[in-house]
């Protein structure tokens, strides 16, 4: 009987997590260098220090270099996603200046809920 209760609780938690996840999607669309968003789009340099509101955001200092892999589009065009070393996250496009464009054409694709996951100590968490 205890095992059935545990399974029901687990299903309830998963269901609740799914509803919370959907409220934290930052945009339904993004622009990338390829359909899989694996190709680097540009190399940018931070023009200001930035500390994001949660773990989905990339923190950086003025002068640091960031590689951009996607740009949110339509309802939230101000946020780009990229990496600095092994850190990855979103940041405002007005906090950087483009140093080098690495692709010729951008493609627009739908985002996925997994685009907005936080990674902490090798575990994915939803905000």
From TrEMBL:
It comes from Cisticola juncidis. Plays a role in the transport of cargos that are too large to fit into COPII-coated vesicles and require specific mechanisms to be incorporated into membrane-bound carriers and exported from the endoplasmic reticulum. Plays a role in the secretion of lipoproteins, pre-chylomicrons and pre-VLDLs, by participating in their export from the endoplasmic reticulum. Thereby, may play a role in cholesterol and triglyceride homeostasis. Required for collagen VII (COL7A1) secretion by loading COL7A1 into transport carriers and recruiting PREB/SEC12 at the endoplasmic reticulum exit sites. Belongs to the MIA/OTOR family. Residues 1-22 form the signal peptide. Keywords: Coiled coil, Endoplasmic reticulum, Glycoprotein, Membrane, SH3 domain, Signal, Transmembrane, Transmembrane helix. PROSITE patterns: SH3 (PS50002). This is Melanoma inhibitory activity protein 2. SUPFAM superfamilies: SH3-domain. Residues 39-101 form the SH3 domain. PANTHER family: MELANOMA INHIBITORY ACTIVITY PROTEIN 2 (PTHR23158:SF38), MELANOMA INHIBITORY ACTIVITY-RELATED (PTHR23158). It is found in: Endoplasmic reticulum membrane. GO terms for biological process: endoplasmic reticulum to Golgi vesicle-mediated transport; protein secretion; vesicle cargo loading. It comes from the Eukaryota. SMART domains: SH3 (SM00326). It is a single-pass membrane protein. Interacts with MIA3. Interacts with the COPII coat subunits SEC23A, SEC23B and maybe SEC24C. Interacts with PREB; recruits PREB to endoplasmic reticulum exit sites. Interacts with APOB. One of its GO terms (cellular component) is endoplasmic reticulum exit site.
């Amino acid at each position: 009987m205890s095992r059935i209760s545990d399974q029901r609780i687990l299903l309830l938690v998963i269901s609740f997590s799914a509803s919370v996840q959907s409220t934290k999607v930052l945009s339904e669309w993004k622009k990338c260098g390829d359909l899989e968003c694996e190709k680097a789009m540009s190399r940018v340099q931070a023009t200001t220090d930035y500390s994001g509101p949660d773990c989905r955001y990339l923190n950086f200092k003025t002068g640091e270099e960031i590689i951009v892999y996607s740009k949110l589009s339509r309802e939230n065009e101000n946020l780009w996603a990229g990496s600095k070393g092994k850190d990855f996250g979103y940041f405002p496009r007005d906090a950087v200046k483009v140093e080098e464009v690495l692709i010729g054409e951008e493609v627009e694709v739908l985002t996925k809920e997994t685009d907005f996951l936080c990674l902490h100590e090798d575990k994915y968490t939803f905000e």
